[in-house]
Write a structure and sequence with these properties.
3 strands; 3-stranded parallel beta sheet
């Protein structure tokens, strides 16, 4: 649904505005799409419609975007099915583009996780990463209290859609010309051009800031862990998971408890403890890795 924000499933807003912006700056662009609200790359792969389009139509780029919370809830699925799509895309002669999303309102740490995982996967797959999520982080740092989300605290408002459009344009077509300023319906108001210029500058900063995402020094910034900050640091690892795959034997529990870290079909990061887990769906516990024979 992040792709069709500003439009609908039958008329997605983001590709429409990217095409409009491209035309405004004298570029031609055609697009097709397979979008479905709240879905995942795994479901899209298994349903087969997106794969069929990749295999039967001719594209220069194929954009992949997983569920907004997939990097927190099922990282294995994200990596596995992005890789499957990437292989099919390469076989078709196109290039894979990863649409980096953003954190929910009030959860800046989520945005850091999303950025890290999209960049890490982009490096592994040799894909192009469109750093929309990083652009959102930069915008909020420069404009505390500003809004890019709608009331659901997840989807983009008009300014958010415009910012994403600019980041895509910068990544796929090059630097945004300064001679004239493209605006979209979502900006509106008397200050539309002023707002557009501000958002274009943020898109440029995000693109340049993310240009080295494939380098080790960039990926060494791991948002899952706090770097040691004292002269002497005592690091304690305990329990079953805690991001590093450490496990106890025998298992310390066989049930999922809200706020605790458990083994599901992946190792949950300790970031999960910072989430409101009231409605968080944990994967079914697979206790086998933590069972030990003992007398």
């Amino acid at each position: 649904s992040y792709t069709y924000a500003g439009g609908s499933e039958i008329d997605p807003g983001l590709p429409k505005y990217i095409k409009e912006m491209a035309g405004f700056y004298d570029h031609e662009m055609e697009y097709d799409f397979v979008v479905k609200g709240g879905t995942t790359l795994e479901r899209q792969w298994k349903e087969g419609k997106a794969l069929e389009k990749i295999q039967t139509e001719k594209f220069d780029y194929v954009v992949l975007q997983d569920h907004s919370a997939i990097t927190l809830r099922n990282l294995n699925s994200f990596r596995e099915f992005a890789a499957k799509f990437n292989e099919a895309i390469k076989k078709s002669g196109a290039k894979t583009v990863m649409y980096m999303t953003w954190g929910y309102a009030g959860k800046p740490e989520m945005g850091e996780i999303v950025e890290f995982e999209y960049n890490r996967l982009g490096k592994d797959l040799g894909a192009i990463v469109v750093p929309c999520g990083l652009a959102w982080q930069i915008y909020f740092e420069k404009n505390p209290g500003a809004e890019l989300h709608i009331s659901d605290k997840s989807h983009p408002n008009g300014a958010g859609v415009y910012l994403n459009t600019c980041v895509f344009y910068r990544t796929l077509f090059g630097k945004i010309p300064a001679k004239k300023t493209y605006t979209s319906k979502g900006l509106g108001g008397e200050k539309a051009i002023e707002t557009a210029k501000k958002l274009q500058l943020v898109a440029e900063e995000a693109f340049r800031g993310n240009a080295d995402y494939g380098k080790e020094q960039r990926l060494n910034h791991n948002p899952y862990f706090q770097s040691p900050s004292a002269d002497i640091n005592h690091i304690i690892i305990y329990g079953q998971s805690l991001s590093t795959g450490q496990q106890t034997a025998p298992a310390i529990s066989v049930k999922n408890y809200a706020g605790n870290l458990m083994l599901g079909d992946q190792v949950w990061s300790n970031f999960s403890n910072n989430l409101d887990t009231t409605n968080l769906i944990f994967n079914k516990l697979i206790a086998k890795p933590t069972i030990a024979s003992h007398k």
